[in-house]
């Protein structure tokens, strides 16, 4: 019903009207052996989540709430690369379908005019030396109006429809995301992260700017200098010391 043009991604789709979180369902399916490319989509999430147990607002019928299972043959420390790969694929798809040009804020936010319209959550099932599966959660605000965002996020969140000034059909956007993802993922498996990294840097808003990184234990201030080949953010502090940030909240 989505009219997919992909070879493997999305060829098994589990569709739900209402779930707690597509991420939880996809993780369970992955654990039970679901093949690469399995996709879980819901019209509404009652307990959509972000990183560090934060909530992801996922109201009925206005967004794309989905989780995809990948099984890349990579060691766990390379998994952050996939978050960046997905951010590039979603940005390209948004640009292709709506003509809007998004910015990526490391590691996992896609912004339009400085406000967040997409969140990406990458979770791993892994042995010490090998990834068994990566569950990629993608949340996109598509057709919400400003008034439909709850008070605590209305200043920081936006939707494609708000920025475009018209409603956007969701199915063609899902198609395009999976198509771009499949293309980049193939390229990644054949040629590694470097080509993806270049594309990512083209969309990144943080590079060369002062950034405050809040990791679990500490706060580091510095200028964002780029990302490493593993997908970590490089921050240079006032003493010209370099810090490599794995997955933190950054403030521009
Ligand atoms: C993220 O977390 O941005 C990852 C969001 C991933 C959501 C998808 S939807 C499908 C799949 N199933 C799930 O249960 N999750 C995934 P983080 O960087 O931690 O950002 C969370 C923060 O974004 C919250 O604390 C709010 O401030 C803000 N936020 C919540 N809902 C939002 C929304 N709809 N639009 C914009 N910002 C939002």
Topology:
Blueprint: E1 12-19, H1 22-31, E2 38-45, E3 63-70, H2 80-98, E4 103-105, E5 109-112, E6 115-127, E7 130-141, H3 160-164, H4 170-191, H5 194-203, E8 210-214, E9 219-227, E10 233-236, E11 242-245, E12 249-251
Parallel strand pairs: 1-2
Antiparallel strand pairs: 2-3, 3-7, 4-5, 5-6, 6-7, 8-9, 8-12, 9-10, 10-11
Protein name: Bifunctional ligase/repressor BirA
Keywords: ATP-binding, Biotin, DNA-binding, Ligase, Nucleotide-binding, Repressor, Transcription, Transcription regulation
Domain BPL/LPL catalytic: 1-189
Description of the structure:
There is one protein chain. The chain is an alpha+beta fold and 252 residues long. The chain folds into two domains: 12-203, 2-Layer Sandwich (BirA Bifunctional Protein, domain 2); 210-251, SH3 type barrels (Roll), CATH 2.30.30. Helices cover 26% and strands 32% of the residues. The protein has five helices and twelve strands. The strands form two sheets. The protein has a seven-stranded mixed beta sheet with strand order 1-2-3-7-6-5-4, with helices on both faces. Strands 11-10-9-8-12 form a five-stranded antiparallel beta sheet, with no helix packed on it. Bound molecules: biotinyl-5-AMP (BT5). Biotinyl-5-AMP binds at residues 21-23, 45, 48-52, 54-58, 65-67, 108-109, 116, 119-121, 137-139, 141, 153, 157. The site of biotinyl-5-AMP has 29 residues, from helix 1, strand 3, strand 6 and strand 7.
């Amino acid at each position: 019903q989505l009219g997919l043009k992909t070879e493997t991604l999305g060829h098994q789709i589990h569709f739900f009207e209402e779930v707690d979180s597509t991420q939880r369902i996809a993780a369970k399916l992955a654990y039970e052996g679901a093949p690469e490319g399995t996709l879980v989509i819901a019209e509404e999430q009652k307990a959509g989540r972000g990183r560090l147990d934060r909530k992801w607002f996922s109201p009925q019928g206005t967004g794309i709430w989905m989780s995809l299972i990948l099984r890349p043959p990579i060691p766990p420390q390379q998994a952050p690369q996939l978050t960046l790969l997905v951010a590039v694929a979603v940005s390209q798809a948004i640009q292709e379908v709506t003509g809007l040009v998004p910015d990526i804020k490391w590691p996992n936010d896609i912004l339009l005019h400085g406000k967040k319209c997409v969140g990406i959550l990458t979770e791993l099932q892994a042995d010490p030396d090998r990834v068994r599966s990566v569950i990629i959660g993608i949340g996109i605000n598509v057709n919400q109006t400003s008034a439909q965002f709850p008070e605590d996020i209305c200043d920081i969140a936006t939707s494609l429809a708000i920025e475009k000034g018209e409603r956007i059909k969701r199915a063609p956007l899902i198609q395009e995301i999976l198509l771009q993802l499949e293309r980049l993922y193939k390229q990644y498996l054949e040629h590694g992260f470097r080509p993806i990294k270049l594309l990512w840097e083209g969309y990144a808003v943080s590079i060369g700017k002062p950034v405050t990184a809040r990791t679990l234990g500490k706060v580091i201030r510095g200028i964002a200098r780029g990302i490493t080949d593993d997908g970590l953010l490089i921050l240079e502090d006032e003493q010209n010391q370099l810090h490599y940030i794995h997955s933190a909240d950054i403030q521009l």
